[in-house]
Amino acid sequence: RSTLFPYTTLFRSALAQLRNARKDLSGWSDRALGRAIETLAITDEETKGASRDADYAMEKAVITICSLRRR
Q1: 16-67 pLDDT tens trace
Q2: In terms of Cα–Cα distance, which of 33, 11, 31 is closest to 22?
Q3: Which of these, 45, 46, 43, 44, lies nearest to 63 by C-alpha position?
Q4: Cβ atoms 68, 30 nearer than 8 A
Q5: Fewer CB atoms inside 10 A, N or C side of the chain?
Q6: What's the angle, vertex CA 48, arms to CA 45 and CA 54, rounded to 5?
Q7: Mind giving me the DSSP string for 8-71?
Q8: CA angle at residue 61 from 57 to 70, to 5 degrees?
């Protein structure tokens, strides 16, 4: 084995993750994906105390993200 073995293994793993991500993200526009990430960040904040009703914050996030997926 060469001294590059750990790095080639990591590189192959990263390529596999990239291929999987591309498949998982098919159907998402850049804009919709960005909005979904923003929604998750806001929901994280709301469920950790920024909102009075964490359950509602989660429900709102799921509905928002599902509606973004269809666009």
Answers
A1: 888 888 888 888 888 998 999 999 999 999 999 888 899 999 999 999 999 9
A2: 33
A3: 43
A4: no
A5: N
A6: 95
A7: HHHHHHHHHHHHHHHHHTTT--HHHHHHHHHHHHHHHHIIIIISS-HHHHHHHHHHHHHHHHT-
A8: 160
Amino acid at 57: A
The answer to whether 64 and 39 have CB atoms below 8 angstroms apart is yes
The H or E element spanning position 7 is helix 5-24
Helix (H) / strand (E) element for 6: namely helix 5-24
Cα atoms in the Cβ-side hemisphere of radius 13 Å centred on 10: 4
Kindly state the DSSP code that residue 5 receives in the 8-state scheme.
H
